[in-house]
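> @MW can you paste both from yesterday?
MW: sure, first one:
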Amino acid sequence: MKTRNLWITLCGTFALAVTACAPPTPQVVTAPQAPVPSVRPATSTPAAQTEGDLTETAFGPISSVGRKLLTIVEQTSLREITTSTWAQQRSSNPAVREAARVIITQHKDLENRDTDISTRMNLPVAAEPAPDMQAGIDRMRTEFGETFDRDYVNTLRKAHAEALILVSTVRADTRNSLVRPFADLAGDYIKTHINLLEKTGDVDYTQLPVPDL
């Protein structure tokens, strides 16, 4: 019995010695992860402005936007002289008739100046309204009374707002000595027309686009 106990004691002592002499268990060290660079969307740079759309004339270069202004003024004059003549004949609202009277007079002036400027620069002169303008003419041709008044006033009010933006753009940057004073005059007339149309009481402001930059 004593021999057995001695044997167990010796085995235990041997095991402890082996454990003590064993190399330590290596610790696994995780290397720190390199930070992932954040990816930002590429910032778009404004397209370089070119002068390829300029047409040289004896009065200075005219841009495509300047040519567009001359075309639209001619086309709107054809539409608004026609529809304003109807407004004078059909409307029972004195404010509508007064707006129509002024619009006719001033658009005849713009039409004459526009034709003269285009001819002097050898540019084409619009002979008829644009398709969307013609659609408005055709629609108003069959309207009378308050229906006509509302359509006439709101169609022209919206169109004048769009034209005012175009005129302001051309006036700000044009290099053409004929277009510059023409844009000034057109802008003055357009603002006069807007005020007269608003005085009719028929403008539906919800039809106007929300201003944006």
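MW: second:
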Amino acid sequence: MFAIADSGPFAVLAINDSARPVPTWKTMFGWPADDPRALPLTVRSRADRKIWAAKVDQAVCATQRPVLLIADGLGCAASAWWGRLSPADYVSRIAGALLFAPRGEEIGADGDPGLFASPGTPLPFPSVVIQPQHDEAAIRSTLDAWGSQLVAGRRVRSVADDRGAWQQAQRLFLRVTHQVAAHEVARAEALIGRR
């Protein structure tokens, strides 16, 4: 059974793109790439995808804390696919997602649906896309489809022992989540006031 990190305010489930030797979360925030709790994404077929999704289901359901989903590269599209198509009971356990440098491969070659193509609905949990290079135009359609907020920067470092930067990433997520929640409350109040 795959176990996820269960410390701090969240249980952390990391999905790393096996095509990237060093996950973006390590180069940007110094989070160790060799963390045994990272679930590698080595999906090559629909059968592999089902096995991977079952591992995610099992990990999410095994914890008592809200889950912070962390994904890198193709893992972002895989996480979006999982979130959009999994039972609401599983997805409701996700507090939110930090999506690092998505590769945008929900669609395969020649416009054919890729392994992680899913309905074009916003993700059922708050999400923040962290893009190392500020190229918003390249991922604008992904941001819109996922309903994600973008954080872009040029911070690059590879410090395996620096947990402070990873804690900063978690605080960033909390700050953005609070902003999203406050916005939704204000919007609901405005709608109530209009009636």
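> thanks! Strands lie at 5-7, 10-17, 38-41, 67-72, 94-100, 127-131, 149-152.
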